[in-house]
Amino acid sequence: MVFRLHQNGAAPDMTILPKGAKKLTDYGNLAYLFMRLLREGWKVAIISGNSARVQLEKIYYPILSEMGGENPALKNLVFYVNGGSTKITFTEKGEVVYDEKYNQKPEHRLDKEIFVKTIKKVLKNPSEKNFGLTEEETQKFIDEIQEKYPKKNYPGLELTFPWREGADWEPMEILPGEIESLKSKGSEIKKIACPWIEIRNEKEDEKVGKVAAIAIKPTPKFEIPIEGKKVKEVDIRPKIQRGIQNEIEKIQEEEKIDFHFFIGSGGETTTDISVGKVAAINDLIKDKKKIKREYVFYFGDEFYEYKVEVGGGEQVTITGNDLEIARKVDGITCVAVNYNKRADNFEGADTPIIRLGRSPQAILEFLEAVLALKDESLPA
Question: How many of the other CB atoms lie within 10 Å of CB of 270?
Answer without folding.
Answer: 23
